[in-house]
Amino acid sequence: MDNRVFMKRYNEFYFLTDPEDFINSHCPDEEEWQLLENPVKLEEFERMVLKTSAFYQLRLTLIQPRHFLLITENGEASISMGFPQPVDFTYQIFQRSCCEQKELRGSVGLLTVTQTTMKLRLLPPAVGSFEVMIFARLGNTSGMFGWVCSFQVECSKPQPAKDLPENPYLCWGMQRNAEALGLEPRVCGSEVAVLGGGTFELVLHTARPLMMLCELSHKDLDQNLAKRCLATQIEADKLTCHVLCPYTGYYRLSVFVRDYERAGDNFSNAGNFMLYCAGNPINLNELFPPALSNWCGPGISTDLAGLSKFSHTEAIVSTQQGQLDITFRNQHDLDIHAVLSKEHRPRAGHDLTRHVFLAHARTEVMVSVTLPEPGVYKLSLYASAAPDEDYAPLCDFVVRNGAEAGRPAFPRTYAAWGKGDVLLEPRTGLLEPHSRVRLRARVPGARRVCA
């Protein structure tokens, strides 16, 4: 069937076909020509699932249901199959009426495919009769999908409308070939993840270093806003995606990976996960900062640069004091630069460059940050191996500040202040008038102090 029009084609499957298989699609008028020890009655034949030759050529096994007619329970029905070799699946659903069949668009089914099984959860959107056609092809190929079997679904009471997200990648949960892409085996993850609040964290363990991209969709979420709902951390042995949900309802989170060292390769879809935010969505003013890089938090990029022993190993750092210190070891003696940024700054004050202070002590680096107001900041680290080289980005930290009282800026530094210099006190750039202040600093090689 192409576009539901019969196409005559040559098919060797029906030459000397096993009677046990032949009876699934053809029933002779005379029982003796079934060539079965226990002939099938016509009534039973009419209840059997219609299986095409492709069903047997792909060595599929129907696990459930046993008959072509499915009656929904609590508004849903399911179909499952087994197979000994990799197989890809897709499906079509038609709503039947007295004179026509209308193909249903949108998410009315949840398809999950593993290495050896397929499960399709059907969620008819209305009362009525529906035809379900299953298509399959051999895994790891790009050939056309072939029709393998059909079912009829009767729904007397559908589930309430859910506005399920579209899934252009067909399957939910981890893709069947996720392990070949470099991901460690794990629970399929095809069930809906119900979130009590507006945050979610997905962690995927890897067998080798991978690069990751993520995509988030929701009926009310535009593309630019969706980017500010994701923060990814890429480490040698795991991938982490932090998700913010600014609306209630259903989301699709899709993950794409490639080998880290093969920058010219295309990304492949490794999994698609359905999230449901039941309440307490994130305020739009609390989303991640714009223009986050794919490298949030310490990971492969900082490892390759020789940075290690980070005091903060997560991509998201929270403080209730309005200040924090991030320390790490700089094994290759790189020049480190840090930039603090925030999308909206309603309060007047110093430029944010005065709110970051770097201190070097041999191989130890401390990045001190003071935050002038509450909100969400981006702290970006850069490194240069030589004075004449440009600074290369290493990673971003998302900094959440819950302190209402703003912290003052650091003292201004000049070109003479360099690596190895340490300011002990005072740590603020604004001194109280008529106050007595002690200045303490460590400046290797200094001969004289002038004030």
Name the descriptors.
single chain, 451 residues, mainly beta, Immunoglobulin-like, 3 domains, six-stranded mixed beta sheet, five-stranded mixed beta sheet, 6% helix, elongated
Mean pLDDT score: 86
Write down the overall geometry: elongated
Domains (count) = 3
CATH C-level label of the largest domain: Mainly Beta
How large is the share of residues in beta strands?
35-45%
- Could you name the CATH topology of the largest domain? Immunoglobulin-like
Q: SS-based structural class?
A: mainly beta
Distance between the termini: 89 Å
* Individual helix count: 5
Flag low-confidence runs: none
Helix content: under 10%
The CATH superfamily of the largest domain is identified as Immunoglobulins
The assigned CATH architecture of the largest domain is: Sandwich
Please report the total strand number as a whole number: 28
Largest beta sheet, briefly? 6 strands, mixed
Radius of gyration: 31 Å
Describe this structure in words.
It contains 5 helices and 28 strands. It is mainly beta and 451 residues long. Strands 1, 3, 5, 6, 9 and 10 form a 6-stranded mixed sheet that branches. The termini are far apart. The model has no long low-confidence stretch (mean pLDDT 86).
